[in-house]
Design brief:
Largest sheet: 4 strands, antiparallel
CATH superfamily: RRM (RNA recognition motif) domain
Radius of gyration: 15 Å
Oligomer: single chain
CATH class: Alpha Beta
Shape: globular
Low-confidence stretches: none
Length: 96
C-alpha cells in the first residue's frame, strides 16, 4: 500500500468498541483489507498524533446470502483493535 491515508477507513461504534474505549484505552476501526499492522500503526499515529502500543487485526470473511430469487455475497471486512500507550488519550466524537 502506497498511501497511508487510505489504510484507515472509519471507526466502528458498537457495544464492544465503546467498552474497549472506556475501560482499556483501545479503539476499534475498520481498515483497508490490503493493509498490514505496520501500515495501520503508521497511519493512525500520523493522522491522530498519538503513540500506538499494539495493533491487533481480525478478518470477517464474506458469506453467501440469498435475497429473494437472487444470490449474492456480503463484503469481507478487516478490523483493527488499536491499543494506545499509557497516558495517551484520543476522543473521536466527544465535541460533536
Amino acid at each position: 500500500m502506497n498511501n497511508l491515508h487510505t489504510a484507515i477507513k472509519r471507526p466502528l461504534f458498537t457495544e464492544k468498541a465503546t467498552y474497549l474505549k472506556e475501560h482499556e484505552n483501545k479503539f476499534y476501526i475498520e481498515v483497508d483489507p490490503k493493509s498490514n499492522k505496520i501500515e495501520i500503526r503508521k497511519a493512525f499515529e500520523e493522522k491522530f498524533k498519538v503513540k500506538v502500543e499494539k495493533v491487533a487485526i481480525t478478518m470477517r470473511p464474506s458469506k453467501w446470502k440469498k435475497y429473494g430469487k437472487s444470490i449474492g455475497k456480503t463484503r469481507k471486512l478487516k478490523k483493527a483493535i488499536i491499543t494506545l500507550k499509557e497516558g495517551e488519550k484520543l476522543d473521536f466524537i466527544e465535541g460533536v
